[in-house]
## 1
Amino acid sequence: MKSVIPYPVSYLVSKLIFTIAFFRNPAKVYGRENIPKGSVVICANHAHGNDPFYIVYSFPFWDKIRIMAKEEIRHMPVVGRLLDFLGIAIWVRRGKSDLAALKLSMKTLKKGEKLLIFPEGTRHEEIGQGKTGAALMAIRAKVPVLPVYVDPERRHFHRVKVYFGKPFHPFTEERKPTAEDYEKATVEIMDHIKALRDSREAIEAGA
C-alpha cells in the first residue's frame, strides 16, 4: 500500500503515535554515523513486533526505508496500520515463492533506496539462524549490508537501544555466486549482528 501522505509527514506523525501507544521514548542510537548514503540492505535481529519502528525511527525522516514484512502483520491492529500508514511495507506471503515481493525489493535497491530485512524470518528472543534472502538481494543488487542490533529489553519510559555496525559487502568476487556463497554470506551477516550484541558495552563507552 502506498501512503497518500508525504513520507516525512507520515514518519513524524506515526513516530509520535508510536511513542504514545507504547509508552516509550524513541530509540537511543549508537553508530548512526555508519549509515551509508544510497542503497543498503539493513539486517537486524528480531525479538519484538515493534522492532521495525525503532529501526526506522533511528534514521532521519527524509531517509525512506522499505521493510519486508510477512503478510500476517498487516492485519495486526497497531503495527499493521502504522506500516500501511507509512506506506513502506513490502508484504510477503510466507511459505510461498513471492516473486512480486522479491521484484519490488530489488527495484527498491536499484532505485537507490534502503531495504530492511530480518534475516531470521521471524521473531527470536535470542539471535537465531539466518535465511539467505537478505544475502541474495544484497549480492545481486551489489549493495552493502548494514548490520543492526536492537536491544530486546523493553522498559517503560526508557529508550530502546539500537546499535548500527559498519556496512560491508558480503561477497566481492568477480564471478557468479553459488548457493554456498549465499549461505556463507548469511552466516557472515548474522555474525556481524552478534558482534554488535557482544560489544554493546564497548560501543556505549566509546560513544
## 2
Amino acid sequence: MLEMLSYPFILRALVVGTLVSLCSALLGVNLVLKRYSMIGDGLSHVAFSAMAVATVMNWAPLWVAIPVVIVASYVLLRLSSDGRFSGDSAIALLSTGALAVGIFIISMKSGINTDINNYMFGSVLAISKSDVSLSVILSLAVLALYVLFYNKIFAVTFDEPFAKATGVRADFYNMLVAVLTAVTIVLGMRMIGALLISSLIIFPAMSSMRVFKCFRNVVICSAVISVVCFLTGLMVSYAYSAPTGASVVILNIVVFAAFCAVSFVRGRIRRQRISAEN
C-alpha cells in the first residue's frame, strides 16, 4: 500500500476516482429509480466523440468535452420529453451517432492511437495535474448541488406529477441531475473508460436496492459501495497490472451478486416466518 501511494499518478487517480465514484453513486440512485440509468452510457459516447475531436485539434480534452456533454444531456432530455421518442430510443440515437462521429474523425486524421484507447478503456496514467484540479473543483460542485437540492431531487424522483402540483420545478431539477451526470461522466471517463463508466452509475445503486428500501439508506449504501469498490479496484489493478476500469467494474459485479444473495436469503427467511405464523 505504501509503495503504491509513492507514485504521483496513483495519488492523482485516488483523489479523482474517489470523488467521481461518490458523485456517480449519488446520481445513480435517482437515475435508476427513474428508469433512466443508461443515460451514462449515452453521454459517455458523446464525451468520447468530443475528446476525440479535441485530441485531433490539440485542444484540452476536458474543457471541450464538458460543455459538449452538458448540451447533449439537454438534447437528450428534450428528445425524451418529446412524444415521438422514448428514453431508450433517444439514448440510442445520440450515443451511436456520437460514437460513429468520433471514430470517423480519428480514423481520418491519424487512426486510433493510444490516447483514444485510453478514453475508450480508461487509464490512470491519462490523468494530468490540471485534470486533477479541474476534477476536484467540479466534483465538489456536483456534491454541493446534490446536497443543496436533495429534497427537491427526492420529490421529483419518486412522484414527479405531485412535485409539479406542489410548485416544484420538476423540469429544472431533471435538467440539474442530467447536467451533474454529464459532468461526472466526463471526469470519470479518463480513468474508467467510455465503455465502462456507466457501470459506476448503475451497479452501486442496484446493489444497495437489493437490501435497503429507504431512499436515504440506499443513497448512503450506494456511496459506500462505490468508493470501496473503486479503492479496492485500484489496489487490485496496481498489484496485478490490470486495467483499473475493468477491476472496479468486476468488484461492483461481485458486490451486486453478494447483495442479491443477501436479499434472497432474507426473503426466504421472511416467507418461512410468515408461513410458520399462519
